[in-house]
YhbS protein
Amino acid sequence: MLLCSIKSQQHRGVCLVFRDYVPELDLVAVCEGKMVGSIVYSKSKIDTSDGRTIDDVVTFGPLGVLPEYRNRGIAAKLVQESFRLAKDMGFRAVIIQGDPRLYGRLGFRCGEKYDLTNAEGQFSVCLMAYELYEGALKAAGGCFSESESFGYKEEALAEFDASFPAKEKGESAFQSEFGVLITLNYKKDPKYAV
Ligand SMILES: CC(C)(COP(=O)(O)OP(=O)(O)OC[C@H]1O[C@@H](n2cnc3c(N)ncnc32)[C@H](O)[C@@H]1OP(=O)(O)O)[C@@H](O)C(=O)NCCC(=O)NCCS
Protein backbone atom coordinates (compact mmCIF):
# COMPACT_ATOMS: atom_id res chain seq x y z
CA MET A 1 0.00 0.00 0.00
CA LEU A 2 1.20 3.49 -0.92
CA LEU A 3 0.21 6.76 0.67
CA CYS A 4 0.21 9.63 -1.83
CA SER A 5 -0.47 13.31 -1.78
CA ILE A 6 -3.48 13.80 -4.02
CA LYS A 7 -2.82 15.02 -7.54
CA SER A 8 -6.03 14.11 -9.36
CA GLN A 9 -7.65 17.31 -10.57
CA GLN A 10 -11.09 15.76 -10.21
CA HIS A 11 -10.56 14.89 -6.54
CA ARG A 12 -8.94 18.23 -5.87
CA GLY A 13 -11.88 19.95 -7.55
CA VAL A 14 -14.19 18.12 -5.14
CA CYS A 15 -12.08 19.13 -2.17
CA LEU A 16 -11.90 22.75 -3.20
CA VAL A 17 -15.59 23.06 -2.41
CA PHE A 18 -14.43 22.86 1.22
CA ARG A 19 -13.68 26.24 2.63
CA ASP A 20 -10.40 26.22 4.64
CA TYR A 21 -9.26 23.08 2.78
CA VAL A 22 -5.58 22.14 3.51
CA PRO A 23 -4.29 20.54 0.27
CA GLU A 24 -0.94 19.47 1.77
CA LEU A 25 -2.76 17.09 4.15
CA ASP A 26 -5.01 15.58 1.52
CA LEU A 27 -3.80 11.97 1.20
CA VAL A 28 -4.99 8.90 -0.62
CA ALA A 29 -4.10 5.25 -0.03
CA VAL A 30 -3.36 3.27 -3.19
CA CYS A 31 -3.40 -0.55 -3.36
CA GLU A 32 -2.80 -2.50 -6.56
CA GLY A 33 -3.01 0.75 -8.53
CA LYS A 34 -6.45 1.57 -7.13
CA MET A 35 -7.41 4.44 -4.84
CA VAL A 36 -8.84 2.67 -1.78
CA GLY A 37 -8.93 5.31 0.93
CA SER A 38 -8.62 9.02 1.54
CA ILE A 39 -8.44 11.68 4.22
CA VAL A 40 -9.27 15.36 3.77
CA TYR A 41 -8.46 18.23 6.14
CA SER A 42 -9.69 21.74 6.79
CA LYS A 43 -8.56 24.45 9.18
CA SER A 44 -10.56 25.01 12.34
CA LYS A 45 -10.22 27.19 15.44
CA ILE A 46 -10.64 27.52 19.19
CA ASP A 47 -12.06 30.70 20.74
CA THR A 48 -10.42 30.39 24.13
CA SER A 49 -12.14 31.18 27.41
CA ASP A 50 -9.71 34.08 27.94
CA GLY A 51 -10.56 35.78 24.63
CA ARG A 52 -7.84 34.48 22.27
CA THR A 53 -8.35 32.75 18.94
CA ILE A 54 -6.19 29.70 18.28
CA ASP A 55 -6.17 28.98 14.56
CA ASP A 56 -3.33 26.48 14.19
CA VAL A 57 -5.59 23.49 14.64
CA VAL A 58 -6.99 21.24 11.93
CA THR A 59 -9.90 18.86 11.49
CA PHE A 60 -10.23 15.92 9.16
CA GLY A 61 -13.29 14.50 7.52
CA PRO A 62 -14.25 12.66 5.55
CA LEU A 63 -11.95 9.72 6.24
CA GLY A 64 -12.97 6.71 4.21
CA VAL A 65 -11.69 3.31 3.09
CA LEU A 66 -13.39 1.10 0.50
CA PRO A 67 -15.34 -1.73 2.23
CA GLU A 68 -13.26 -4.53 0.75
CA TYR A 69 -10.03 -2.92 2.04
CA ARG A 70 -11.15 -2.25 5.63
CA ASN A 71 -9.65 -3.70 8.81
CA ARG A 72 -6.11 -3.83 7.51
CA GLY A 73 -4.84 -0.62 9.07
CA ILE A 74 -5.32 1.70 6.08
CA ALA A 75 -7.29 4.39 7.98
CA ALA A 76 -4.73 4.26 10.80
CA LYS A 77 -1.90 4.81 8.28
CA LEU A 78 -3.70 7.75 6.63
CA VAL A 79 -4.25 9.30 10.06
CA GLN A 80 -0.67 8.73 11.28
CA GLU A 81 0.98 10.06 8.10
CA SER A 82 -1.26 13.14 7.97
CA PHE A 83 -0.49 13.84 11.64
CA ARG A 84 3.23 13.72 10.85
CA LEU A 85 2.75 16.21 7.99
CA ALA A 86 0.46 18.46 10.07
CA LYS A 87 3.04 18.61 12.85
CA ASP A 88 5.77 19.50 10.33
CA MET A 89 3.52 22.27 8.99
CA GLY A 90 3.34 23.77 12.48
CA PHE A 91 -0.20 22.80 13.48
CA ARG A 92 -0.59 22.11 17.19
CA ALA A 93 -3.50 19.68 17.28
CA VAL A 94 -6.11 17.76 15.37
CA ILE A 95 -9.63 18.20 16.75
CA ILE A 96 -12.65 16.35 15.43
CA GLN A 97 -16.28 15.64 16.13
CA GLY A 98 -16.01 11.94 15.54
CA ASP A 99 -16.98 8.57 16.91
CA PRO A 100 -15.13 7.83 20.18
CA ARG A 101 -15.38 4.08 19.53
CA LEU A 102 -13.11 4.54 16.52
CA TYR A 103 -10.98 7.57 17.31
CA GLY A 104 -10.17 6.53 20.87
CA ARG A 105 -8.27 3.64 19.24
CA LEU A 106 -6.37 6.06 17.05
CA GLY A 107 -5.02 8.01 20.05
CA PHE A 108 -7.63 10.78 20.40
CA ARG A 109 -8.61 11.95 23.88
CA CYS A 110 -11.88 13.34 25.05
CA GLY A 111 -12.09 17.13 24.41
CA GLU A 112 -13.01 17.69 28.05
CA LYS A 113 -9.45 16.77 29.02
CA TYR A 114 -8.38 20.05 27.37
CA ASP A 115 -11.49 22.03 28.40
CA LEU A 116 -12.74 22.10 24.83
CA THR A 117 -16.43 22.59 24.23
CA ASN A 118 -18.38 22.59 21.00
CA ALA A 119 -19.48 25.85 19.34
CA GLU A 120 -22.56 25.89 21.63
CA GLY A 121 -20.24 25.93 24.68
CA GLN A 122 -21.10 22.36 25.74
CA PHE A 123 -18.89 19.36 26.31
CA SER A 124 -19.64 16.68 23.78
CA VAL A 125 -19.13 12.93 23.78
CA CYS A 126 -17.86 13.14 20.19
CA LEU A 127 -15.53 16.14 20.52
CA MET A 128 -12.07 14.62 20.54
CA ALA A 129 -8.54 16.00 20.34
CA TYR A 130 -5.06 14.79 19.50
CA GLU A 131 -2.06 16.92 20.55
CA LEU A 132 0.64 16.93 17.87
CA TYR A 133 3.23 17.70 20.55
CA GLU A 134 3.13 17.42 24.30
CA GLY A 135 1.31 20.29 25.99
CA ALA A 136 0.01 21.65 22.67
CA LEU A 137 -3.46 22.17 24.11
CA LYS A 138 -2.40 23.38 27.55
CA ALA A 139 -4.28 26.60 28.34
CA ALA A 140 -6.12 26.29 25.00
CA GLY A 141 -9.55 25.54 26.48
CA GLY A 142 -12.56 27.19 24.90
CA CYS A 143 -15.09 26.78 22.11
CA PHE A 144 -14.00 24.71 19.16
CA SER A 145 -15.46 25.46 15.71
CA GLU A 146 -15.02 23.55 12.51
CA SER A 147 -14.76 25.28 9.18
CA GLU A 148 -18.11 26.55 7.92
CA SER A 149 -17.83 24.02 5.11
CA PHE A 150 -19.06 21.35 7.58
CA GLY A 151 -22.40 23.17 7.75
CA TYR A 152 -23.40 22.14 4.24
CA LYS A 153 -27.01 22.29 3.09
CA GLU A 154 -28.78 19.02 2.27
CA GLU A 155 -30.15 20.40 -1.06
CA ALA A 156 -26.67 21.54 -2.14
CA LEU A 157 -25.30 18.08 -1.25
CA ALA A 158 -28.06 16.35 -3.25
CA GLU A 159 -27.28 18.57 -6.24
CA PHE A 160 -23.55 17.82 -5.90
CA ASP A 161 -24.18 14.05 -5.59
CA ALA A 162 -26.32 14.18 -8.74
CA SER A 163 -23.22 15.16 -10.73
CA PHE A 164 -21.81 11.61 -10.15
CA PRO A 165 -23.05 8.24 -11.45
CA ALA A 166 -26.01 7.14 -9.27
CA LYS A 167 -25.26 4.84 -6.31
CA GLU A 168 -27.53 3.30 -3.73
CA LYS A 169 -27.24 5.16 -0.44
CA GLY A 170 -26.91 3.18 2.73
CA GLU A 171 -26.24 3.74 6.41
CA SER A 172 -24.40 1.17 8.53
CA ALA A 173 -25.42 0.39 12.12
CA PHE A 174 -22.15 2.10 13.18
CA GLN A 175 -23.16 5.28 11.33
CA SER A 176 -26.71 5.22 12.77
CA GLU A 177 -25.29 4.86 16.28
CA PHE A 178 -22.92 7.75 15.60
CA GLY A 179 -26.01 9.81 14.72
CA VAL A 180 -27.10 9.29 18.34
CA LEU A 181 -23.67 9.82 19.93
CA ILE A 182 -23.16 13.16 18.18
CA THR A 183 -26.25 14.56 19.96
CA LEU A 184 -24.83 13.76 23.42
CA ASN A 185 -23.67 16.99 25.05
CA TYR A 186 -23.06 17.33 28.77
CA LYS A 187 -22.03 19.69 31.54
CA LYS A 188 -18.78 19.06 33.36
CA ASP A 189 -19.18 17.15 36.61
CA PRO A 190 -16.07 17.43 38.83
CA LYS A 191 -16.85 13.95 40.20
CA TYR A 192 -16.21 12.43 36.77
CA ALA A 193 -13.79 14.93 35.19
CA VAL A 194 -11.24 13.36 32.84
C1 LIG B 1 -14.01 3.94 9.66
C2 LIG B 1 -13.08 3.49 8.53
C3 LIG B 1 -12.43 4.72 7.87
C4 LIG B 1 -11.98 2.58 9.16
O1 LIG B 1 -11.07 2.22 8.12
P1 LIG B 1 -10.10 0.95 8.29
O2 LIG B 1 -9.02 1.07 7.29
O3 LIG B 1 -10.91 -0.30 8.28
O4 LIG B 1 -9.54 1.16 9.78
P2 LIG B 1 -8.21 0.51 10.36
O5 LIG B 1 -8.09 -0.90 9.85
O6 LIG B 1 -7.04 1.40 10.14
O7 LIG B 1 -8.54 0.48 11.91
C5 LIG B 1 -7.95 1.40 12.83
C6 LIG B 1 -8.47 1.10 14.22
O8 LIG B 1 -9.85 1.44 14.32
C7 LIG B 1 -10.62 0.29 14.63
N1 LIG B 1 -11.86 0.38 13.85
C8 LIG B 1 -11.98 0.35 12.50
N2 LIG B 1 -13.29 0.48 12.15
C9 LIG B 1 -13.98 0.61 13.32
C10 LIG B 1 -15.33 0.76 13.63
N3 LIG B 1 -16.28 0.83 12.66
N4 LIG B 1 -15.69 0.84 14.94
C11 LIG B 1 -14.75 0.80 15.93
N5 LIG B 1 -13.43 0.65 15.70
C12 LIG B 1 -13.07 0.54 14.41
C13 LIG B 1 -9.77 -0.90 14.25
O9 LIG B 1 -10.09 -2.05 15.04
C14 LIG B 1 -8.38 -0.39 14.58
O10 LIG B 1 -8.15 -0.42 15.99
P3 LIG B 1 -6.99 -1.37 16.60
O11 LIG B 1 -5.73 -0.95 15.89
O12 LIG B 1 -7.00 -1.02 18.04
O13 LIG B 1 -7.43 -2.75 16.27
C15 LIG B 1 -13.85 2.66 7.47
O14 LIG B 1 -14.57 1.63 8.13
C16 LIG B 1 -14.85 3.50 6.64
O15 LIG B 1 -14.48 4.05 5.59
N6 LIG B 1 -16.11 3.60 7.10
C17 LIG B 1 -17.13 4.40 6.40
C18 LIG B 1 -16.85 5.89 6.52
C19 LIG B 1 -16.73 6.31 7.97
O16 LIG B 1 -17.51 5.90 8.85
N7 LIG B 1 -15.71 7.14 8.24
C20 LIG B 1 -15.43 7.65 9.59
C21 LIG B 1 -16.18 8.87 9.89
S1 LIG B 1 -15.72 10.22 8.86
In short: Residues 74-88 form the longest helix (15 residues). The mean pLDDT is 90. The longest strand covers residues 34-48.
